[in-house]
Fold this protein.
Amino acid sequence: MEKSAEDIFEGFKEHSIAEFFKRNKQMLGYSGKVHSMVTVVHEYVSNSMDACEDAGILPFISVRIKQLGDERYSISVDDNGPGVPKKFVGKALGTILTGTKFHVYRQQRGQQGIGAAGCTLFAQITTGKPIHVVSSTGENAYGCDISIDIGKNKPVVNNILPAERKSKGLSVQGEFEGIKYENSEKSVFEYLRRTALANPHVEIMFYAPDGKEYTFTRSVETIPSPSKAIKPHPLGISVNDLLDFARVSSSRKTSVFLSETFARMSSAKVQEITGIVGESITDKAPKDLDWASAESLIKAFKSVKWIAPDATAISSIGEERVKAAIDNILTPEYVYIVERKPQVLHGGIPFIVEAAIAYGGNSGRKSSEDEYTWNIMRFANRVPLLFDAGSCAITEAVKGIQWKRYGIDIDNRPVSIFVNVSSVYIPYSGVGKEAISKEEELVEEIRLALMDTARGLQKYIGGKQKVSAAKTRYRTLMNYAGQLSSDLSYLTKADKKEIERSLERLILKHYPKAKESDAELEEEKGA
Amino acid sequence: MEKSAEDIFEGFKEHSIAEFFKRNKQMLGYSGKVHSMVTVVHEYVSNSMDACEDAGILPFISVRIKQLGDERYSISVDDNGPGVPKKFVGKALGTILTGTKFHVYRQQRGQQGIGAAGCTLFAQITTGKPIHVVSSTGENAYGCDISIDIGKNKPVVNNILPAERKSKGLSVQGEFEGIKYENSEKSVFEYLRRTALANPHVEIMFYAPDGKEYTFTRSVETIPSPSKAIKPHPLGISVNDLLDFARVSSSRKTSVFLSETFARMSSAKVQEITGIVGESITDKAPKDLDWASAESLIKAFKSVKWIAPDATAISSIGEERVKAAIDNILTPEYVYIVERKPQVLHGGIPFIVEAAIAYGGNSGRKSSEDEYTWNIMRFANRVPLLFDAGSCAITEAVKGIQWKRYGIDIDNRPVSIFVNVSSVYIPYSGVGKEAISKEEELVEEIRLALMDTARGLQKYIGGKQKVSAAKTRYRTLMNYAGQLSSDLSYLTKADKKEIERSLERLILKHYPKAKESDAELEEEKGA
């Protein structure tokens, strides 16, 4: 029997984003018990670091996990950041898709306004409990409980009371079920270790549920300069973006609107563009721009030359800091670091790739008792990415390198590959922000950085092998030389020591590296 | 200089889900030009099939793509479904997260209420144009233009006018930029080919932008019985779910609420549960249940025995239909099909895995002029999944099989592996629904199905090899037999034919398969 359209559409209704993610929590990173625990820690720790850096404070973060039952844990994260004003705390932690971070071209770890509210949702649907917050912005500290009215995606804030807290900061505590602590490659410990690696200015204390305590000490004492909001570059926006900006502009003329809104838009450029599209467009009020006018503006943008977007708003980690952090945490035998120049995504979004390769020490991953293999440490805006490697631009770039060509037997060597992509906008492949979308421009730029690191390591391994071959021959010949000198000395009555020295000089002529080798190695390591 | 919390939270605001996906369209599958085009076709075609099956109509769908400029195309999809009533059309195509499909335990292709509205958003932000709809629900046909008020996530419906359309159905047409038609493994053509494969009751016409026309003909004439909404199984719900159901219940007592809301909840079961949790809970009004009471109910659910959830609401494709479709489209030399019994995800969500392996014919993928390799065709509720294979439970299961153990050199054989997972709830790994989350229960069940198919193919290939070895020896011996008979006949004067027949009998005793082989092969093929 056929059913009518009316029957079918009966009960048709709109749903809240909180309802959607309640039903699809795996999309936020709540899939699997170990993974879910890392997601909670990740969301809180990223928020704390963003807040501290925003406020110009060297971050000190402590993470405390207590086991309350089989698969039930309390997780709390405490920071020394600026705190959250009482009137904003509900929105910040109890509404999905809220934040300041949404429309601003500015580099931050969080960029979606989902993370911390997602934790509240996850606590609520697994244990029915609100999260508990204590915060101080410098004056009076307060505490409160926060949950989400899921059907409406609105915060429910209860038990707002004065609290004991002497210093500024935010402490968030939640109770979660269906999660698990594990000491694996994809664990909270590893997440924090990598966070420390990419953020050497952060000090992290970790109180694990098994009673162990870890400190990841700060290895540099300067805060990365706080990220600035930048004006968008004319090449990085679409027709639709242009109209969005125009709609909220209060300028009387489009020409003024252009120079006020976009980076690199000098008055000479405005004139040049007016020359292309005509005054009928640039004299219009921006509010009156229609799609066709905006489209001709965008076309004009693409036809003129621009200075590349300003990359000063992007804060990469920096070569020295990467080196300090890798030495601190991996203590490798050799490390090679590459920081590439800023590049541009979609024509207007600046990004910077940093890559490093570390060899020996604690680099790589143990594959059996005595054997090591490689691992990748992926980062986006210094946040470690532990999951969904298969969907990530970084993995794609690593796979694109023919490591054997560089004489690097990556499968059987203690090699760690470190890649950090920094940008005001990272195109994540999913809402859970666990992988960077495989955009061609990104993959290619990462590949170039990795080729550089591969050449660095090739030189080191090559040098080591050459030196070791020379050493072996030198030693063999020197063994013969000892015996030969005795025999010659016996036959010729010449001094044995004298003959030995002559022979050694002769041998060293052929294998000059064999004796200087240690010094040389040191030199190459430092290069 | 330190910044205060007030400074930081200035401008803090809530954002609409439409704004979020506008900024992160790659999360909906709009990443890459070819991929983006497939996403549009996929969303419209899935909606059409759902609508037709809901209404009990054999689907006839036509897809028309026209190139309008470099990377600019018009895509239209027309169906013979029930149509969309005028008053719902704005919500259906102009609001993200709207649908009937959200809270109902029922198998459908769409389950999120994002897809078609996502296409509207994508058209709008790439070309500024609304989508154009023509629909008839049987009475008067109408046409209109739909776009989204992105800041509010509300539909904007314009130009509502009577339209010429004789039969029921829906036609949607949109103009998109930044997309590309390509004839590759991940193309619209392949998407439709696989759709036809998993939906042999659907007839699809495809008008490609290069002027070519394709028809994927219907190979079975019966509509899969329309999916029923089922009551949730007590083992498939969380404490939070139970409270959600309780909140909207009008029952006076929890005991009544339980038997009305859940599957397999007989009055004997309600009594059993009351025995465990006490009447103080089951006599309560469901609205008054708190977390603790709900938790004890859920614990009680877990401690009693249940009949498995009803899987009749799940419509798998069915062995015969899979065979008909594979024969129709791949014309393989051999095919082996497995339909597993219904299994249960998270304790209460029924799902069914179907797998097939096809060998020869158009199976597999050409890797060079004369060489073939394998491919996987992944489906969820009969919808082909072309992207993000690395994140998918099906890929994970395929990788978990040691094909060599089954004597299948999968890398160098024309093998197609077909897997379809059917359920009232598919845990997709992302909003774009391109991969099934790697949940252990799913991966394991798919692996078991694949092992079955591997054994099937092993037997076939093994048989073929044995037969072919026997045939070779038989032929070699028979060549000798000819010469030997002549020689013996010459020496003994016995009849050459007679000797030859005796020798053949002798040889056949040892290689009996060599002559029956073709018949046998046929038999094995049919098994």
